[in-house]
Design a protein that fits this description.
- The protein has 9 helices and 19 strands.
- The chain is α+β, with helices and mostly antiparallel strands and 387 residues long.
- The longest helix is centred in the middle third of the chain and has 12 residues.
Length: 387
């Protein structure tokens, strides 16, 4: 008998809103609402879309080497997690976020994740982690095993996660939580709402300005309904989330990033902190740093097919002279661009923007060009510009 699908704290609300539900990472999740994928995509670009991302894994990593909150507590927990990721975690300020990756011994990517140093008082020596839904069990098992004796993991199964994305998101969140609108990209702040402890991060995975709000499960539906009561906000499902992140040139784990790909090959070498580049000390460091210095043999690139036909995952990529040079890892229609977009891996000698390639779709060669990413400019809020 097949295992029953898990449900997020917002499951009943999705049904009430008329969502079309699908299986995703072991959960019943909304793929679209009556507005439809195209409408939801455009609404997020123009106003604000509300996404349920409660299926993702949330956890608190706490140092056990030193008393929590004492001098050196952050350094201790950061040093522990840095044995598994290439990110610069020690230098995180209170309320700072890092996008990074868990690595296997060969430098391959086991998952991409967010690591936050909480700004709440009394949480010295604690890191807040958010990992992908499909890999969270393996991620947490690895972290617990590898860091045993140095840190302990408190999995936050009792929390929901809501993303609000789009140009109107800041105004909506600031009206609910005064002061949140002043946060800048990749920062976090604690808030209390109806006696609930909220972790509010200014980040997201659509390329738009926005927030991710971690809330107690029992408060999630009330919070979502309050946000949806704003005329600027509409519910958005997995379909538009995928088209938004694709236009933004952002990776989907298990497709664009896998255990067979290093951060350099994945074109996300920025996750390797400056100190980490100098010191190493993370899994696969020798291989990764050599690739960074000498260049990889393959590289993730953007692809712009000619015409209207999209190239889906798995489509073969050929050079102009018919040589097989790679494969598409994500592809579809870009509503904002008004045409197909894709990402894939190609041989490094074919990775320059403007290179002519062919994508093999249904046995036919579809002309395309290698393109810079993002396809649609990111609109993250980094603070008010000064003259």
């Amino acid at each position: 008998m097949a295992d029953a699908l898990k449900k997020t704290p917002l499951n009943a609300l999705h049904h009430a809103l008329g969502a079309k539900m699908v299986k995703f990472a072991g959960y019943e999740m909304p793929v679209q609402y009556p507005m439809g994928v195209l409408g939801e995509h455009q609404h997020t670009r123009e106003k604000a879309g509300l996404f349920d991302v409660s299926h993702m894994g949330q956890a608190f990593l706490k140092t056990t080497e030193i008393a929590s909150g004492s001098d050196g507590a952050h350094e201790a927990v950061a040093a522990a997690i840095e044995t598994l990721v290439p990110g610069e975690i020690r230098r995180l300020k209170k309320g700072g976020l890092r996008y990074t990756v868990l690595l296997n011994p060969d430098g391959g990517i086991l998952d991409d994740l967010m690591i936050t140093r909480p700004a709440k008082d009394g949480m010295g020596g604690v890191l807040f982690l958010v990992v992908n839904a499909a890999t969270k069990a393996d991620d947490f098992a690895l972290i617990e095993s590898a860091l045993a004796g140095r840190a302990e993991l408190d999995v936050a199964d009792d929390r929901a996660l809501i993303a609000l994305q789009g140009p109107a998101a800041a105004g909506v969140v600031d009206r609910l939580l005064p002061g949140a609108g002043a946060q800048t990209f990749m920062t976090m702040a604690p808030y209390e709402w109806n006696s609930a402890y909220l972790i509010v991060s200014r980040c997201g995975y659509t390329g738009e300005d926005g927030f991710e709000i971690s809330a107690p499960a029992e408060s999630a539906e009330a919070l979502a309904k309050t946000l949806l009561a704003d005329d600027a906000v509409a519910p958005v499902g997995l379909g538009a989330r995928d088209s938004l992140r694709l236009e933004a040139g952002l990776c989907l784990y298990g497709h664009d990033l896998t255990p067979d790909v290093t951060p350099v090959e994945g074109n996300i070498a920025f996750v390797i902190g400056k100190r980490r580049r100098e010191e190493g000390g993370f899994p696969g460091a020798e291989k990764i740093l050599k690739q960074r210095a000498e260049g990889p043999q393959k590289l993730r690139v953007g692809l712009l097919p000619e015409g209207r036909a999209p190239a889906r995952e798995g489509a073969e990529i050929q050079s102009a002279d018919g040589r097989t040079i790679g494969a598409v890892t994500s592809g579809g229609f870009g509503p904002t661009l008004g045409g197909p977009v894709a990402m894939g891996y190609v041989d490094a000698d074919c990775a320059a923007a403007g290179t002519n390639v062919n994508l093999i779709v249904r046995g036919k060669a579809l002309p395309a060009k290698v393109a810079d990413m993002p396809f649609v400019p990111h609109r993250y809020y980094r603070g008010k510009e000064t003259s």
